[in-house]
Amino acid sequence: MGVLSRRLPPLFFAIAVLTLCLAVPGRAGSAAGETVYAAHTLGLHAEADGAGKPAGRIFIATPLTVLERSPGWVKVEVRGWHQEGAERLLYALPGKRIRSALLAKSAVSDLRPLESAVDPDSGLTWFGAAFAGWVPEDGVTADREPLWAQAWQTFSTKCVACHQRRIPHHYTANQWVSFLKIMGERAALDAEEHQLLLNFLQHHASDTGGEAGKE
After folding, report:
1. Which superkingdom, per the lineage (predicted)?
2. Cβ partners under 8 Å of residue 44, min gap 6
């Protein structure tokens, strides 16, 4: 009994450490409530097996909240802002044309309404809303910085050939929409490169509170 009693504490300690490690979010998959980001433009599905037509699209680098997991799939919630009568397109911020999600017409009725806000620049009322659906597990990432680094590399190499480089925080989020439309055509950006770069520039614009970016 004496030998056994001396061995029990280390055994209990090992079990406690193992239990704690398994309980730490991220060790065995993302925990509910965690923020992840779309690693590329994703189809948003009503079911965990991805059956049927997508209920919408999530644009690359959009933040998502993990709700639930199923093998190979993650149920996420995307939050955004829309104007009355234009519920299909959700933007990241009220008054800022930063695209987060585009919903199918049939999915609009499943939007969960949130608070509203008035854009001080335009005086227009924007309505917050949330939408939940399933995306492939390998289509999300816990870290957005590699996506921002990729966008900056594209910006630095493809968008400086025709003119002096524009600095992200010297322009507003909405100004970048028209600027990049012209730049993207000249730089021959594909649709995904264009969307990622636009998202990056808008999140680092003068009126979005993002970091100043690189000079």
Report:
1. Bacteria
2. 54, 55, 56, 57, 58, 78, 101, 103, 131, 133, 134, 135
